[in-house]
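Troubleshooting: if your tokenizer reports a length mismatch, compare your output against this known-good record of 339 residues.
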Amino acid sequence: MKLSKYLRNNFLIILLFIVITAITNLMLVSFKTDIQAILGIDITVIIGFILYIIYDFNRRKKFYNKFLNDLDLLDKKYLITEMIEKPNFYEGEILYDALYDIDKSMSEKIKEYSLSIADFKEYIELWIHEVKLPLASMNLIIHNHKELSDKKIIEQLKRIDDDVEQVLYYVRSENAEKDYLIKETELDRAISNVAMRNKDILLENNIDFEVEVGNKKVLTDSKWLEFIVNQIVSNSIKYIRDGVEHLIRITAEENSKSIFLKIYDNGIGIEKSDIPKVFDKTFTGNNGRKIETSTGMGLYIAKQLCKKLGHKITIDSKENEYTEVSIIFNKNDFLNVAK
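Known-good structure output:
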């Protein structure tokens, strides 16, 4: 708050004070009041007025400067009412009460929307679990009746199953911390589960699936990790390249601080200009124009879940040659020492 703007805002009050003082002086002169007395009155009144202006300016400045500084420091601006104190001047009290009422109204509305969204998410999760039952039954029927087995049917069932699971994990991704359990997880076991899930589609497309992760263990949630790896493997299957022997290779490397799980494929690769955007929501890029089933959600959800789990995910690719996705797990030094 600046003094110049404060004085400009109170210009009429200052002008009125000057006019009233001048009129009072004229009246005192007309009554033949001693000049010394008039000067004494003027000095006293002017000093009193100036002191009031200084006092009023300082109390307003203190309130508004603190208000603006606190507001600037807050990421969630609506929490400002929790930080400011009720001011001791009338206009400030009006502002304070108005902000309090606005914040209360917004909080009630947010709570209403949150409950509505929570109900919707709960319904979606229940619906997904119901859909998974007939999908599992259809897969079992195909395995038990080979005469019904068909590459296109298997591919479409796999696609439906992946899309349904993708919706489930997307719904849960905002509150993933309520659903995961961090513990030591064997990489080979998690990858074996992913391989079993994709067994039929890998065989149908003659894809070599190589795994070299040794006995490495990482701190993660096995269920979430399997979903993330499955999204990457599904992309590798989706974007296979004609004219080569199809390969997906999963390896694990480590240094003193991290373990790197690398998922490599020799598919169609990613255009260089698209690489920085592949983790963006709904981004499909140049490959999305080639493959109609691309949604741009798989890698986005994988990235969000990695953040929740404390992992990093990166991608390297060269168009018409390869794509390699790396999931980086931090080692826990405390646990290593405890062992």
